[in-house]
Amino acid sequence: MQPFSIRSYPRAILHFDGDSFFASVEQAMNHRLRGKPVVTGGERGAATALSIEAKRLGLTRGMPMKQIRELCPEVIVVKSDYTAYSIYARRMYAIVRRYTPMVEEYSIDECFADITGLRGMYHRSYAQIGEMIKRELEESLGITFGVGLAPNKVVAKIASKHRKPGGFTAIPAKEVHTFLQNMPIGQVWGVGYSMQMALHKLGVTTALQFATKDEQWLRANKIAKPYREIWWELRGGFAKELSLTHNDDIGSIIKTRTFAPPTRERAFVLSQLSKNIESACAKARGHHMRPRAVSFFLKTQDFIYRTCELDLSVATNDPAVILRLVEAHFDRVFVPNILYRTTGITLRNLVEEGAATLDLFGEAQVVNERQPILTAVDSLNKKYGKETVILAASLKAVNHLEPNKQRNMTTRTSKVHLPLEQRKKTIDLPYLGRVR
Ligand SMILES: [Mg+2]
After folding, report:
1. Position 320 pLDDT exceeds 90
2. Ligand 1 mean position, distance from CA 20 (Å)
3. Which residues neighbour ligand 1 (ion) by CB within 5 Å?
4. Ligand 1 centroid distance, CA of 148 (Å)
């Protein structure tokens, strides 16, 4: 095959892949697990990730826990802790972003980075830059990474897998073909089972066979665009751009408020909650985010805490919609004749306003139609002061003046949290620098 380019890296793309990521995070967080066979997924009865030590025992992903315990009683089974995994993922993205803003957060344990043109800045070759980032990731996170350098994403994926675990492989454009020779076509990133079967029928079984086909062959066999891109990248070209959007900076929005004196009055407690819902939604609108799920809680005078989690049928930051849902479930949490002192709402699973939502009943369209009204409310509240326009349901809470207190002195917290916040776990995490 003619090399696509005489230059080694017309584009320089890195792919980072955390080794046995979930199990490695567990080992990084808990020194007692290091060097031991660890399996995650204890809560679902089958292995989701295995530490290198567990893999060496011949255990595989998806294996039932019962079987694992029978085969290897020494294996340590832990429950999945997705909060911790996503915090580590964010740290990984943040570290790579120190070197280049061109980072694609591909999955919880993988990312791509485009370092084209950065050799001068770092006074290093592309391979050296790749190794430098790899070293920093491993030192900061305590996890090893498979890293690949290539002229594109498809080949960078092949490179990072080449030497696992903890390997670094650089594949310049003119050497790509040597890595494709013995690679089954089905193992190429983006080639699914049905495409693999279709290519087999055309006599193509290895990645190299596909890469050496010409344009005429692609046309004659009606190869669709995504596969043409793969074909082009297997030849050392660049077709698949990095997707640079990241919506990891906000996981959930929480608004809580304590009032005095404590009350038994259902309508008042609900009004307090309504006010929190309004301000949480205003905040979400400020970030152009919409929650897909919410939870609310009530706290009694005796600090008894009851909470209720609800899924939204369509992502929305319209307080009226969320309030309707909360009202419908309010009595699951509210117990009559008990004194309440605090209410709170959490907007969860935030997605960007522009994100396409599919629904059966056209609710997404209704949400979009109401958006101009909310935008108008936001601009009025911005111009004439907070709570100029409010929901009638919030009126009782807004008009409530606390004894011995100015209204603006009341306890009100507003925080931005990582998703599925679990304080307990956050404390366990070693401090490893600032998370974006
Ligand atoms: Mg991985």
Report:
1. yes
2. 5
3. 17-18, 21, 109
4. 13
> Residue 160 C-alpha to ligand 1 middle, in angstroms?
10
The parent domain of residue 168 ranges over: 1-182
Burial classification of residue 84, based on how many CB atoms lie within 10 Å of its CB (0-12 exposed, 13-18 middle, 19 or more buried): buried
Considering the domain architecture, whether residues 268 and 417 belong to the same structural domain is answered as yes
Residue 365 has a pLDDT of 74
Strands of 13-102, DSSP E: 13-18, 38-40, 49-50, 76-78
Q: What is the CATH number of the domain that holds 366?
A: 3.30.1490.100
341 located within any domain: yes
Q: In the annotation, is 110 catalytic?
A: yes
Whether 137 contacts 143, CB under 8 Å: yes
Is the residue at 73 inside a domain?
yes
Confirm whether pTM is higher than 0.70: no
- Give the separation between CA 87 and CA 201, rounded to whole angstroms: 44
pLDDT, tens only, 193-226: 999 999 999 999 999 999 999 999 999 999 999 9
**What's the CATH code of the domain at 85?**
3.30.70.270
Provide the domain count of the chain: 2
Ligand 1 centroid – CA 19 distance (Å):
5
Model pLDDT, residue 360: 57
146 Cα–ligand 1 center, Å: 8
Q: One-letter amino acid identity for 372?
A: P
- From 26, 53, 105, 110, the catalytic residue: 110
Distance from residue 302's CA to the centre of ligand 1 (Å): 46
Q: How far lies 28's CA from each of 54, 76, 80, 90, 105, in Å?
A: 16, 15, 14, 15, 21
My answer on whether 274 and 173 are in the same domain is no
Domain-located, residue 198: no
